[in-house]
Design a protein that fits this description.
alpha+beta; Alpha-D-Glucose-1,6-Bisphosphate, Chain A, domain 4; 2 domains; five-stranded antiparallel sheet; 8 helices; globular; ATPase
Length: 246
């Protein structure tokens, strides 16, 4: 299993969030002109659907979504990789763009179902490598080491990119940090640490999800975070949806 989340939504509602393109666009990936085409390709054109069992299998890949009804209006959504003995913890600690991307996206799905069922998001995607081998990973550069040790649901506060972030620890894995952000309309920050690979500097990527910001507020938000990121990780690299498969 790559990742699973328990959501405060019925199994039918969670399943619909995997089938309706408009709803998929509110949790999968990030805002981009290519997103509608990617959703059609991944979730409709190259899938095998078993609606009664609520399973969605990707053609040509060993991955499938499963939705399980656990009662009390809740469900478990999991992404399973067939034919592997690796545990969820194993996958979480393995850096691969595709694997880490799916972990992020399933967490974004859980967040949307739990807290923003009918809301429209605006997102910012940041990605890159540092230009020196001595650079810190993104989570350390943002001062999140102590926060990463806290239990999910714990309150946090930190200064970053010229603003004070506060909210709850949503999830933490070996390479990812997920934080709700009150000031982004109860938004979500997902930060992914990319370790040094083949002698390259560290780096990573982030998806910043906001709700309810007007154009001026979002433009200012985007400028602040682009500046923070590019001064630390200026070597741009492809997004995780374009990364290698494992």
């Amino acid at each position: 299993m790559l990742v699973e989340v328990t959501v405060s939504a019925s199994a039918d509602d969670a399943w619909d969030a995997l089938r309706d393109p408009a709803r998929i666009a509110q949790w999968f990936g990030w805002d981009a002109d290519t997103l509608p085409g990617e959703i059609a390709y991944i979730f409709h054109d190259h899938t095998q659907v078993d609606a009664p069992r609520r399973t969605l299998t990707f053609v040509g890949m060993p991955d499938r979504f499963e939705v399980e009804d656990i009662g009390d209006g809740k469900a478990v959504v999991r992404l399973v990789r067939s034919g592997s003995a690796r545990t969820q913890t194993d996958w979480e600690g393995l850096y691969d763009d595709m694997i880490q991307g799916w972990i992020t996206f399933v967490q974004q799905l859980g967040f949307a179902l739990d807290r923003h069922r009918d809301d429209r998001r605006r997102t910012l995607y940041l990605s890159g490598l540092a230009d020196t081998l001595q650079a810190a990973r993104p989570s350390a550069a943002m001062g999140l080491d102590t926060i990463r040790a806290a239990a999910p649901g714990s309150h946090y506060a930190v200064e970053a990119a010229g603003e004070r972030l506060s909210g709850e620890v949503r999830f933490v894995t070996a390479l990812q940090t997920g934080l709700t952000v009150d000031g982004w309309g109860d938004g979500l920050l997902v930060l992914v640490d990319r370790p040094s690979i083949d002698g390259q500097p560290v780096g990573g990527w982030a998806v910043l999800t906001t709700y309810g910001l007007d154009d001026d507020a979002f433009d200012a938000f985007q400028a602040r975070w682009n500046e923070w990121w590019t001064t630390r990780y200026p070597d741009e690299r492809p997004g995780c949806m374009e990364g290698p498969e494992s």
